[in-house]
Structure formats: C-alpha cells, structure tokens
Write a structure and sequence with these properties.
This protein has 416 residues and is of the alpha+beta class. It has twelve helices and 18 strands. The structure holds (2S)-amino(hydroxy)ethanoic acid and manganese (II) ion (MN) (2 copies).
Amino acid sequence: MKIDAQRLQRELDALGEVGRYWDDGLQLWGVNRLALTPADGAGRRHVVERMRVLGLAVTVDQIGNVYGRRSGRDDTLAPVMLGSHIDSVPTAGRFDGCLGVIGGLEVVATLNDHTVTTLRPLVVAFFTDEEGCRFGTDMLGSATATGRLALEDAYALRDPDGKRLRDELDAIGFRGDAPVRLPPPHAYLECHVEQGPVLAHAGVQIGVVTGVQGISWWELTLHGRSAHAGTTPMELRHDPGVVAARIHVHLRDMVASGAYGQLRATMGRVQPYPGLVNIVPSRVVCTVDLRNPDEAALRRAEADLAVAIEQFAGAEGVRVERRQTARTPPIPFAPEVQAQVAAAAAALGLSHAPLVSGAGHDAQELAAVCRAGMVFVPGLYDGISHNPRELSTTEQIAAGVDVLLRVALHFAEEPA
Ligand code: HGY
Ligand code: MN
Ligand code: MN
C-alpha cells in the first residue's frame, strides 16, 4: 500500500494557495498565514473541510488546536497522532508544517481507498502558532496541549501591535470548547521538510530525526536618548542602535570562539524608534535566537551574553529590558520511533540517515507525553525555508509520507 503522490502534491498546492502573496524580489508566490490572522483562519477552514471530506470527526480545543479523528477497530485505545502546523512565517513556502498535516491526511485518504481500519484510532492534528513569530513563543498550541504552557498565559500573550492572542483566536473563530490538555496519544509522528542542507548534501532521501536542539529566544528593549543627528555631539549620545549593533557582532564572535559547541545565534529583528535618518533612536527593540544541541553550552551562552549585553549598554549609558520569550532544552525522540522510521525507509528502498533537527517542531512538545518522532524530507536550494524558495519535489515528499504511512500502521496495530 502506497500513498497517492499526485493527490498529495495537489492538496499541498491547494493549501499553498491560501494566504499566498507575490514576492516581487523573488518573482515567486510566497505564503503568509501568520498565526491567527484571517489568512490563518482561511487555511484552517480549508483543512477542516478536507478533514470532513475524508470522514474525520473534527474537534477544536481551547487554544485552537484542531484534531481530525478516524475510528479504529477498538476506539477505546489511545490513538496514533499524525500532525504538525499550518500557520506560517510571513515569508513562507508551501511545505513547512503543511507537509505533516496534508501528509497525515494523505495517509487517511490512502487507508480510506483501501478500506483499511487500523486497530487504534488515528488522529490528524494541526497545532496553533507553531512558528511563534507573532506572539513571541514557538510551539504555542502543542506546548499548551501538553502542559508546558498554561492556557491563561497563552491567552494573555500580545503581538507587537498589542493584540491579545485570545481575542485574535476569537476573531478567526477557532477558540474551541474541547479541553486543551491532550490525553496522551499512543505515539506521535510528524513528517516535515528538513529546512536545511544536510540531507540534500549527503544525497539521502529520508531523515531519521534523533531529536531537536535547544532553543532560547530573547526580546531586548534598549532604552537610550533620542537626539538630533546633526546638533548632538558624539560624546553626549546614548545611542541604543550602537548597543544593538555591538550585541549583534558579539553573537557572531561567541560562535567563532568555539567556546559554545555548535551554537547558532541570530538577531532576526532590529527595530529602532522612531527609525528616521536624522534622529538618534530613543529605543531599539531587537531579538536574539540561540540554538544548541548541548544544554550546558546553551546555558553558558545565555549567561555570557547577558554579561556582555550589560557591558555594552553600560558603556553607552543605555538601559536594557530583557525578556525571555521561548526556552526549550534539547529533546531526544523515542528510540522505538526512530527505529521504525529507519525500518520503513529501508523497506521502501529509501536511503536514510539520522540527524538532529535544527528547527523547533510540535513533535518536541508531544515527546513530553508520548513516544514521538519525525520523518525528514530533503529540500532543494540547500533546503532553504522560511522563504518562498522552499521546495521539495513530489517524489521527495511522497517518499516521506510513504514512510509516515508505514510507521503509522506499525504503531496503530500495537495492542494495548
Ligand atoms: O523557529 C523554529 O525553529 C520553528 O520554525 N518555529
Ligand atoms: Mn515547521
Ligand atoms: Mn517554521
């Protein structure tokens, strides 16, 4: 039994049309379904409709996670869950997250075609705001469903325009009634594009994901003193822009020092206020994203960076407000799931290799409550992602979802 690659591609393209925008710079269609915007609402309704067409019973929980359930031969058993997210960064392609959700629905469609009923129920899920770039913390829906985040704290989060998450959830009509705490699935599987160059460079078709590296996000508000760019002598300035620049360069120096293992450090957002050519900014809001597969090295990097930030700010007479907006340690995936992903790839004659995920995923949250794992699919152009150039071929995504099908069947036939 194999999935229908053309149908998978068709459904992925159909979802990719929802919230599409023309990226003039790239001359490509991109996707912008930022969490809890009308476009996200439209994407959600599109997938819910697809779930219904496939005969799934749909529930929406209090944080807007959506679950499509397919009965098993014994519905008293815990289900096998296939999931990911369909919210996107504002400059996305069509694959990030969507492959795991549309791929899960393709598994269901294939079982329907073959009138196969698994022992255990199957659930296809998409979680709210996996990206985290609007309300500031990633894997929001899955972290709330598995207890890492409290529902009321999630509801109270605000976006840069001050809009409250709870109100935005209401605005798109997806603040459901189902209790947010998820009864632990029997297993959780997620098919996802690698979003990096490792598999493509190695010429490997399937990634057996061993776990996810640690993630640490900070929002820094640097308060200086606004001044006229022409009349204010340099020695009288308190310029938060200089402090932000020094922090940014220091991130790269920390990585280059080799003192923090495989640290990756990014300043993705730098927003001066008022941000005009002839005014020394009064404040700058900037973000820091630290990643490391080693928890101790990540902690060292956080501590050392905090000291450096105070030094740079003190030297410039700038006041710092520091807020940690996301923090997850390195998470290992269940060895049994990894073994089944490798076995399924081998049975399908697909080359496969283990690798750590550079990106965060909902699977790392589900790992807190059940055996979880991921199937990675390589991408073209060094696996570029969070960019409209994100692209995997029909063959590549079909291989990943065929592995997902086989692993899902393995766990769905496991007796109580
Ligand atoms: O940032 C991440 O790793 C994920 O794409 N949210
Ligand atoms: Mn993703
Ligand atoms: Mn992403």
